[in-house]
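Continuing from the previous page of notes. For each protein in this section, the sequence appears first, followed by its structure tokens. Read the first protein now.
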Amino acid sequence: MFRWLQSKPFQQQIVILALILDPLGFSTGYLLAPSLDIDPLMGGVYGLIAASFPLSMWVLRYASQ
């Protein structure tokens, strides 16, 4: 999977990662928020913020090459 992603152009890599990480981060935050006494919508927002970190690391890795 990792090699398949690296074989794509960088622009497509970003779109693919965003399509995977953003819904995953939002849904995870939305579902975990009530157990942390947070409003579910805010949990979704926090999940989106947390999901942006791997994407940012991917961009930084590409920029350092």
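Done with the first. The second protein uses the same format. Note its length before scrolling.
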Amino acid sequence: MHPMRKLLYHRGVDDHIGTYVTDYVYSGVCFLLCIQLIVRIYHERRKMTSEQRMTSSCCKISNWLPWNWPKEKPTAIGISTYAVLLFGFSNFVMMLLGGLTHQFLQTVEPYNDDINNLWDWLIIWRVGSSFSAIVCFSLLIMTEQMITQERVFRIPHTIRVGYYIIIFATVVCFFGVNYIPLTGKVKDPFSIRQTFTVTFGVVVLNGIAALIVVVYHSCHKTTRKSTRPYSTEYEGRYSPSHSLNSNSFCDDRSILGFLSCNGSTNSHRQVRDDKRKNRRRLELFAMTLAPWVFIVAGAANHFMKSTCADSDAAHIDLGCPLPDSFNHNALMHVMQIVSAISFFVAENMAITRRSQMDASNIKRVATSSTIYNDVINSSDITDDKDRDVKNNNNNNRNDDVIQNVIKQPDVIIIPELEETERMKIPKFPTNLNYETLSTNNRHSLYDNLSNVQV
């Protein structure tokens, strides 16, 4: 230990092993989380159609313009996904450069107050701290997307555009402020107090938005249920082609079999809904846990600073509750690691939920088209039967109509039948007894032909 070193923050930077080791761990965890999310984005995009890929592409400039949000056709990969990815990458660079400075800044000799031999590490330190501006920008994007995707309230396009213009200009200014100490006009060029204050203020906004979302969902448990075009119960009961493949189809036609079949279907549906609700609760919990763990980490660092930052042996001299090799800075880094993991877990669960919703929407569209085709086919068959019945009734009224009948392969046109009467023929007859109509038909076409031959 150099004799001139008396405080924890030598040259304004903590050089204890616990601090820079946790910096490296934080950086490595963020790097792995970013790789995992990139792989997830790749697999999700492979399952999309070409139109969905263009909608969720990060390379298309129009997808990043605020006045094009929210998308009319949201996909599993959205702006919030790329914001979380930007958050992880910024923390990866920031903590890596910070850990290097924490470890090697104190090794520069001679150890005096002259800063001329510290320019290399000062630049590295300031480049790392400037990435906190990108962290704030990604957090502000996540805050807006959280409110929009959860539909807490609808944000007008003008307000959204103004919001992004303001935060973009603010972030650019904040990015430049981090390089002011390089001018030599600052007393402590390694101080990052302003960076900490702004970053934790942005995280507080994100945490408040997460609490609003949780309260909103707690007060509106049945929200948006009535907006669904039709329920899954309708699909199983009223779609002929879908019901054969659904769980509601039962071979046992008895009453007990019917009850047991429907009971098992309802129980399976209940289990599926319970699992979906549990996953949704975990997603909201992770989404709320992430910012507030970050806030608690900053608060713990601030309040423990008075007893842990004024001596190299603060645990013995000042009664710091933490050991010297794992001080309040190391504790803050560990809690921030938990926060970063929670951000990524929440976004991964949101991707899964949006992907399942997209798949269910495709299934509903297919089912609705199946129902439509079934109805059209049944109506065509019914129309043929209606035409036959109408022709038989006309034969009963007047046998002379037979000679004016014009037959076509599938359509029978009766000249004496007016257009208005043909339009009144119901497309969906309810009760028609064809056997009675055929027995009452005393003069059919074949009878008249036989009479002619005689």
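What the second structure shows: The longest strand covers residues 9-10. The two ends are 131 Å apart (CA to CA). We return to this in next week's lecture.
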